[in-house]
């Protein structure tokens, strides 16, 4: 028990309620994001139907890591979007109809996360930002908790970086259709469910294409067939050749 | 943590002494990569790989480590990318202010000094950036400056920094610096230097896990900057 006089720690030292991977992929007409809807409290599955992909104006942001920090970041971004639409500023960015694009939001988030890390009190997240870039082309970028930014055609945070990225790297083409991109992401989400013990099969997708931003309701992946794989039904040693999982 | 074990035939005694473990958030990450630059009588060649790593993960195979601060001066940086990005933003702003105040862009030796004071300004919470500055100086001669993380700098004929530094510098010592060679030191053209740097990066990419994917090479002359890329192994 702590003695009464000891002050509480004010700086983040470890995340408590967390979300796992977020995946993103650029396809021919836009960007698709996917994430499961599980919040974990260490090894406990604390909440199983929580969206981790959110739309703010024309941008979709997905977060892995500490969920309360994501909630705070969304508050800040919503306040910024409101400020934009309700104040007049002598700046072409604000007087143009397009307002803040995803690329602007990405840069803003980078500044936010870098300044918090420089005070040793980070937002403990890895964020994916999707939408359009300054030139109107599909945009997908990530920012991590120390402000490292990466812009690419496919990005995965958390465990997805190890399990999903190899698949995304292999299968990505610049002319992927929406159906192909969705199938690829769902395949990656299945694999994450099987191998990441903080993942669930209940997922959510988000799409930024043309001028629309859509975030889907959560739905369950169909993993029934996969559980029937030989490797799960027979024990090691009975399989031909393989002898493995 | 230390473990003391004494075992006899009948029993085994294990005594463990452990030091307290402190968990602490680190504001830095090492994102790897190698940069190098070689200067000549009227040119400077600067090269950098394009891989961004974090731990054993490759975050991207196509991120540049080169940043033109003026049209005659390029900053090549390896280390922690978020600090490198911040450093570039700060230098861009200071360079712009200089240009507004003096009605001319900064020349390379001035940029070199500015980089040094900018780095030292964060002496007690450094930018984790290992820099090589390459440019054409006021006389039109190629210049290379190498830095440590807190701003100590020196003008040299050639330099390298980053995770593959130890593979590149000895090679450049022999081939550019003519060390341990009996022939007279040759004067190389920019094209010859580009080929030598490609070899240097091939070697570094072979042995350094953080170096690979592509090399971006920029040649700076008084006429401007020309860029080319060269593929490396992706393993």
UniProtKB/TrEMBL annotation, chain A:
Matches recorded under PROSITE patterns: PROTEASOME_BETA_1, PROTEASOME_BETA_2
GO BP: any one term: proteolysis involved in protein catabolic process
Pfam families tied to this protein: Proteasome
Keyword tags: Cytoplasm, Hydrolase, Nucleus, Proteasome
InterPro entries documented for this protein: Ntn_hydrolases_N, Proteasome_beta4, Proteasome_bsu_CS, Proteasome_sua/b, Proteasome_suB-type
Subcellular location per the Swiss-Prot or TrEMBL entry: Cytoplasm; Nucleus
An example Gene Ontology molecular-function term: hydrolase activity
A single GO cellular-component term on record: proteasome core complex, beta-subunit complex
Keyword Nucleus among UniProt keywords: yes
Family: Belongs to the peptidase T1B family.
Function: Non-catalytic component of the proteasome.
Protein name: Proteasome subunit beta
TrEMBL record, chain B:
An individual GO BP term: proteolysis involved in protein catabolic process
Subcellular location: Cytoplasm; Nucleus
Gene3D superfamilies: Glutamine Phosphoribosylpyrophosphate, subunit 1, domain 1
Domain of life: Eukaryota
Keyword Ribonucleoprotein set for record: no
Main location: cytoplasm
GO MF term list: hydrolase activity
Cellular component GO terms held in the UniProt record: cytoplasm; nucleus; proteasome core complex
Keywords: Cytoplasm, Hydrolase, Nucleus, Proteasome
Presence of the UniProt keyword Nucleotide-binding in the record: no
Family matches, as PROSITE patterns: PROTEASOME_BETA_1, PROTEASOME_BETA_2
Subunit: Component of the proteasome complex.
Family under the similarity heading: Belongs to the peptidase T1B family.
PANTHER family tied to this protein: METALLOPROTEASE TLDD, PROTEASOME SUBUNIT BETA TYPE-1
Annotated function: Component of the proteasome, a multicatalytic proteinase complex which is characterized by its ability to cleave peptides with Arg, Phe, Tyr, Leu, and Glu adjacent to the leaving group at neutral or slightly basic pH. The proteasome has an ATP-dependent proteolytic activity.
Descriptive protein name: Proteasome subunit beta
């Amino acid at each position: 028990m702590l003695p009464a006089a000891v002050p509480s720690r004010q700086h983040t030292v470890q995340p408590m309620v967390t979300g796992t991977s977020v995946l993103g992929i650029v396809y021919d007409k836009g960007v698709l994001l996917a994430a499961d809807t599980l919040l974990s409290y260490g090894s406990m599955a604390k909440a199983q139907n929580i969206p981790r992909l959110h739309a703010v104006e024309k941008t979709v942001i997905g977060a892995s890591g500490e969920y309360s920090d994501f909630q705070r970041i969304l508050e800040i971004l919503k306040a910024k979007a409101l400020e934009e639409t309700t104040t007049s500023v002598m700046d072409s960015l604000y007087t143009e109809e397009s307002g803040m694009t995803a690329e602007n939001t990405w840069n803003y988030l980078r500044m936010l996360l870098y300044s918090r890390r420089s005070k040793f009190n980070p937002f403990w997240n890895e964020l994916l930002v999707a939408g359009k870039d300054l030139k109107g082309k599909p945009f997908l970028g990530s920012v991590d908790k120390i402000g490292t930014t990466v812009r690419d055609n496919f990005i995965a945070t958390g465990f997805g970086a190890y399990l999903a990225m190899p698949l995304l790297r292999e299968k990505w083409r610049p002319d992927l259709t929406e159906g192909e991109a969705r199938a690829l992401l769902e395949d990656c989400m299945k694999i994450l469910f099987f191998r990441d013990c903080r993942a669930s099969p209940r997922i959510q997708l988000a799409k930024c294409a043309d001028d629309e931003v859509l975030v889907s309701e959560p739905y369950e992946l169909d993993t029934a067939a996969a559980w029937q794989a030989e490797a799960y039904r027979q024990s090691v040693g009975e399989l031909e050749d393989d002898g493995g999982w | 943590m230390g473990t003391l074990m004494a075992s006899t035939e009948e029993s085994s005694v294990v005594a463990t002494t452990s030091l307290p473990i402190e968990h602490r958030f680190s504001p830095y990450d090492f994102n790897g990569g190698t940069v190098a630059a070689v200067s000549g009588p009227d040119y400077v060649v600067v090269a950098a790989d394009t891989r961004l790593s974090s731990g054993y993960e490759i975050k991207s195979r196509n991120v540049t480590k080169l940043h033109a601060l003026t049209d005659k001066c390029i900053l090549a940086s390896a280390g922690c990318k978020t600090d490198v990005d911040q450093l570039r933003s700060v230098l861009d702003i200071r360079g712009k202010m200089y240009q507004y105040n003096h009605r001319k862009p900064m020349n390379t030796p001035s940029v070199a000094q500015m980089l040094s004071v900018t780095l030292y300004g964060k002496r007690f919470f450094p930018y984790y950036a290992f820099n090589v500055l390459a440019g054409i100086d006021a006389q039109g001669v190629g210049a290379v400056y190498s830095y440590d993380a807190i701003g100590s700098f020196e003008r040299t004929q050639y330099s390298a920094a980053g995770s593959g530094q130890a593979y590149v510098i000895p090679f450049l010592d022999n081939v550019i610096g003519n060390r341990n060679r009996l022939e007279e030191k040759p004067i190389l053209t920019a094209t010859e230097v580009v080929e030598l740097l490609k070899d240097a990066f091939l070697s570094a990419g072979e042995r350094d896990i953080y170096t690979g994917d592509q090399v971006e090479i920029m040649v700076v002359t008084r006429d401007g900057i020309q860029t080319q890329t060269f593929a490396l192994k992706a393993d």
